[in-house]
C-alpha cells in the first residue's frame, strides 16, 4: 500500500510540473532545438560524467572509513546501480537496495550502510549549496534565488547538525532503555530493545565523523565530482550554441540537484525539467530551448547509468528476479527496522 501511495503522490506531482512546463510551450522551437545541437560534444560529456560518478562511488568507501572489505570498483558499481534504481523506482528504493546488497556482500550491518548513505546525501547537499552560493555571489543575486539557497541551507545544515549531535552524544539507547522500563511501555520492552539496536547500528554509519582525514577526503571528492558535472553541463549547453559563462552550469546543476528532493514519477519527470527551465531562464533562454537541453542532458545520463547497471548485473550473473527480490527484501528489512 505504501508503494502505491508513493507512486500516486509522485505521479500527481509530476503531472502538476508537466502542466507548468507545457503551458505556452513553443513545440516548433523545441523540435528545432534538437536539430541545432552539436551531438559531438557528447564524446566529451560521457567519459567525464562517468569519471564524476566513479569519484562519488570511491567517496562512499571513504565515508565508511576506507573499509578494506569494500573495493572502489564495487563502490562505484553499487553507487551507480543505486542511483539508477532511484531514478526508475519510488521511495529511494535504490538506497535501500545498495545498503542491503553491499551489506550482504561485505558482511556489514545494513543499517550502518544506510546511515552512511544518509551522510553521503547531506554532503552532496552541502556541496551543491556551496556551488549555488558561489554562482549567486558572482553572477545573479535575485531575491527568489537567495531565498531558495537559504531555505536549502537550513534544511541540509540543520539535518547535518542533528545527526552530528545524535552521533556525538549517543544517548539514544540509554533513553530508549529508560522509557522501555516504564509501566506503560513495559509490554513493548523487547520491541523497543530491537529498535534501539537498529538505531545504534544506523548511527554507527556516521563513524567517519571521528575520522577527520577520511571525512575531509570524502568532502573534497564530493566537491570535485560536482564540479566535473558542472563542466560537462557547460559543454552540453555550448553544444546548443548558448555561449555564457560557467555560472550557467552552476545554476543548472544546483537547481536540478535540489529538484530531485521533490517526490515525482520515474526519472524525475517534471521537477527535473522545470528546474532546468528556471535555471536557464536566468539567462533569458526560452522555455522550449531549455526543455530541449534538459531532455538531451537527462536522457544521456539515464542511458549511461542504465548501461553501467546492466553491465554490473551481467558481470555478477544476476537476473531481474534476483534484483527485484533484493529490492523487496531491502525495503522490507528497513521497514521492520
What report would you give on this structure?
With 337 residues, the protein is an all-alpha fold. Helix content is 77%, strand content 0%. It has 14 helices and no strands. α6 crosses α9. The protein is globular. It starts with a helix and ends with a helix. The mean pLDDT is 86.
What keyword list fits this structure?
0% strand; mainly alpha; globular; 337 residues; single chain
A few lines on this structure:
The chain has 14 helices and no strands.
Contiguous uncertain segments of 5+ residues = none
Radius of gyration of CA atoms, rounded to a whole number:
21 Å
Beginning-to-end CA distance, first to last residue: 18 Å
Shape: globular
The residue fraction in helices comes out at over 70%
Note the topology.
Layout: H1 2-22, H2 27-36, H3 42-63, H4 72-88, H5 93-106, H6 110-138, H7 143-169, H8 172-180, H9 189-203, H10 212-238, H11 247-259, H12 271-281, H13 287-315, H14 320-336
Helix pairs in contact: 1-12, 2-13, 3-4, 3-10, 3-13, 4-5, 4-13, 5-6, 5-14, 6-7, 6-9, 6-10, 6-11, 8-9, 10-11, 11-12, 12-13
Amino acid at each position: 500500500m505504501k508503494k502505491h501511495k508513493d507512486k500516486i503522490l509522485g505521479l500527481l506531482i509530476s503531472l502538476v510540473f508537466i502542466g507548468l512546463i507545457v503551458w505556452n510551450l513553443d513545440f516548433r522551437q523545441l523540435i528545432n532545438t534538437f536539430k541545432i545541437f552539436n551531438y559531438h560534444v557528447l564524446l566529451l560529456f560521457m567519459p567525464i560524467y562517468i569519471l564524476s560518478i566513479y569519484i562519488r562511488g570511491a567517496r562512499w568507501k571513504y565515508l565508511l572509513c576506507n573499509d578494506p572489505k569494500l573495493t572502489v570498483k564495487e563502490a562505484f558499481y553499487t553507487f551507480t546501480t543505486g542511483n539508477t534504481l532511484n531514478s526508475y523506482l519510488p521511495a529511494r528504493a535504490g538506497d535501500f537496495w545498495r545498503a542491503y546488497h553491499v551489506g550482504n556482500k561485505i558482511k556489514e550491518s545494513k543499517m550502518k550502510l544506510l546511515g552512511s548513505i544518509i551522510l553521503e546525501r547531506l554532503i552532496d547537499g552541502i556541496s551543491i549549496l556551496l556551488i549555488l552560493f558561489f554562482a549567486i555571489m558572482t553572477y545573479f543575486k535575485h531575491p527568489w534565488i537567495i531565498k531558495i539557497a537559504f531555505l536549502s541551507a537550513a534544511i541540509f545544515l540543520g539535518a547535518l547538525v542533528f545527526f552530528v549531535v545524535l552521533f556525538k552524544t549517543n544517548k539514544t539507547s540509554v533513553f530508549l532503555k529508560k522509557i522501555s522500563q516504564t509501566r506503560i511501555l513495559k509490554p513493548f520492552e523487547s520491541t523497543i530493545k530491537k529498535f534501539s539496536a537498529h538505531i545504534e547500528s544506523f548511527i554507527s554509519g556516521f563513524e567517519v565523523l571521528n575520522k577527520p582525514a577520511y571525512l575531509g577526503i570524502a568532502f573534497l571528492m564530493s566537491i570535485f565530482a560536482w564540479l566535473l558535472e558542472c563542466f560537462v553541463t557547460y559543454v552540453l549547453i555550448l553544444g546548443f550554441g548558448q555561449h555564457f559563462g560557467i555560472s550557467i552550469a552552476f545554476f543548472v546543476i544546483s537547481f536540478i540537484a535540489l529538484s530531485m528532493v521533490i517526490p515525482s514519477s520515474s526519472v524525475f519527470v517534471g521537477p527535473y525539467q522545470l528546474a532546468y527551465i528556471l535555471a536557464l531562464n536566468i539567462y533569458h533562454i526560452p522555455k522550449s530551448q531549455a526543455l530541449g537541453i534538459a531532455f538531451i542532458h537527462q536522457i544521456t545520463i539515464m542511458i549511461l547509468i542504465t548501461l553501467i547497471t546492466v553491465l554490473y548485473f551481467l558481470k555478477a550473473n544476476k537476473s531481474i528476479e534476483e534484483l527485484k527480490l533484493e529490492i523487496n527484501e531491502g525495503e522490507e528489512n528497513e521497514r521492520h527496522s
